[in-house]
């Protein structure tokens, strides 16, 4: 079997191209991106207590970060989409299938990595992945071949022949990932896939997620508390708080400051530069680490900053357009009033309908 250069076999690439074609409709000169998930009015009560309150959301193709404080309803939302919990209300579509009516077909098209461990004691790693392949309809030899391919993609060596009970946390996360991917689904729903991973393993996991989305056209819903992971790979962000959707927007939109701002890191004293920028009418904020945010100045206007630095003998180490901090957005949203931010992904989808 030929490979596509990143450990995934070519049939995987072909399948995802085909799937992608189903979700991107070309009209003359206009590309309308269809939604991967579009649901409305989902309410889920656990013994009368709401975990999801009239949730409506649209997930565009690409990688979407699903964020929220503990208990905000992320896992319940995922389980609801997969029909693993029954909801009191809600309707919509997932990958073009009616939700919740066609939930069995939907499950066939989704690779789910649950938050908790899920394996059968006594099996070795590759047997466990092959079992998942067989459960999703592949015949014995093909299931085993595919399981090995997925284990290669997840950087398993000889450990694939060890019993899973002996696996480290990182290996168990990789195993769940291989299990979720083995049937080549167009949509992956990953619940905390990097929890418990060391920095190298975490980077490798994020790189795999990026590869699946960018090279193989898969869509990913990534539920996580780790905001740098969202910054690293996500295109869009959904924030749930108290069972309601507070934000659905692209990461690019959320990151863009309300006015153009430069982030400048200097070596040593920067007071001269601060004075020059302030005299020129710009608001300058100094961070705890000593770096500066010069607000109101366009990224194309860096010449002026270099000039001020030269005039005040300030050494600039780095200068780049400033981004809003995802941590701050998250904290503001989590503690703030009902603030539904606009959703450029949803708007572009709605505009095309
Ligand atoms: N099986 C259950 N029975 C009763 N209540 C539940 C059950 N599962 C979840 N809940 C409650 O529903 C709410 C949402 O929980 P959920 O696990 O969906 O949140 P979460 O955002 O995934 O949390 P975390 O980030 O901690 O995993 C919480 O108040 C939780 O206690």
Automatic annotation (TrEMBL):
<protein>
    <submittedName>
        <fullName>ABC transporter ATP-binding protein</fullName>
    </submittedName>
</protein>
<comment type="similarity">
    <text>Belongs to the ABC transporter superfamily.</text>
</comment>
<dbReference type="InterPro" id="IPR003593">
    <property type="entry name" value="AAA+_ATPase"/>
</dbReference>
<dbReference type="GO" id="GO:0005524">
    <property type="term" value="F:ATP binding"/>
</dbReference>
<dbReference type="Pfam" id="PF00005">
    <property type="entry name" value="ABC_tran"/>
</dbReference>
<feature type="domain" description="ABC transporter">
    <location>
        <begin position="37"/>
        <end position="267"/>
    </location>
</feature>
<dbReference type="GO" id="GO:0016887">
    <property type="term" value="F:ATP hydrolysis activity"/>
</dbReference>
<dbReference type="InterPro" id="IPR027417">
    <property type="entry name" value="P-loop_NTPase"/>
</dbReference>
<dbReference type="InterPro" id="IPR003439">
    <property type="entry name" value="ABC_transporter-like_ATP-bd"/>
</dbReference>
<keyword id="KW-0547">Nucleotide-binding</keyword>
<keyword id="KW-0067">ATP-binding</keyword>
<keyword id="KW-0813">Transport</keyword>
């Amino acid at each position: 079997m030929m490979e596509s250069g990143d450990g995934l076999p070519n049939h995987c690439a072909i399948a995802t191209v085909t799937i992608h074609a189903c979700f991107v409709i070309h009209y003359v000169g206009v590309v309308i991106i269809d939604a991967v998930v579009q649901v409305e009015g989902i309410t889920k009560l656990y013994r009368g207590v709401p975990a999801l309150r009239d949730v409506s959301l649209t997930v565009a193709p690409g990688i979407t970060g699903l964020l929220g404080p503990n208990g905000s309803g992320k896992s319940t939302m995922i389980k609801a989409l997969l029909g693993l919990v029954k909801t009191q209300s809600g309707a919509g579509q997932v990958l073009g299938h009616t939700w919740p009516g066609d939930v069995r077909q939907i499950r066939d098209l989704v690779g789910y990595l649950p938050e908790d461990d899920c394996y059968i004691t006594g099996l070795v790693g590759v047997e466990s992945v092959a079992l998942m392949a067989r459960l999703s309809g592949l015949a014995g030899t093909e299931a085993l071949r595919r399981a090995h391919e997925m284990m290669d993609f997840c950087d398993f060596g000889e450990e694939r022949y060890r019993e899973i009970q002996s696996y480290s946390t990182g290996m168990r996360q990789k195993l769940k990932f291989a299990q979720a991917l083995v049937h080549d689904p167009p949509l992956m729903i990953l619940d905390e896939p990097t929890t418990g991973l060391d920095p190298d393993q975490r980077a490798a996991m994020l790189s795999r997620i990026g590869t699946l989305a960018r090279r193989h056209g898969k869509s990913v819903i990534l539920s996580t508390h780790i905001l740098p992971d969202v910054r690293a790979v996500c295109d869009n962000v959904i924030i749930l708080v108290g069972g309601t959707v507070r934000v659905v927007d692209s990461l690019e939109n959320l990151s863009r400051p309300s006015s153009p701002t430069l982030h400048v890191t200097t070596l040593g004293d920067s007071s001269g530069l601060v004075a020059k920028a302030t005299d020129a009418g710009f608001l300058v904020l100094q961070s705890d680490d000593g770096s500066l945010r010069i607000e109101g100045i366009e990224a194309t206007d860096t010449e002026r900053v270099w000039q001020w630095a030269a005039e005040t003998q300030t050494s600039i180490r780095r200068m780049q357009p400033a981004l809003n901090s995802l941590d701050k957005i998250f904290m503001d949203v989590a503690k703030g009033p009902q603030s539904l931010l606009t959703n450029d992904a949803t708007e572009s989808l709605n505009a095309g309908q």
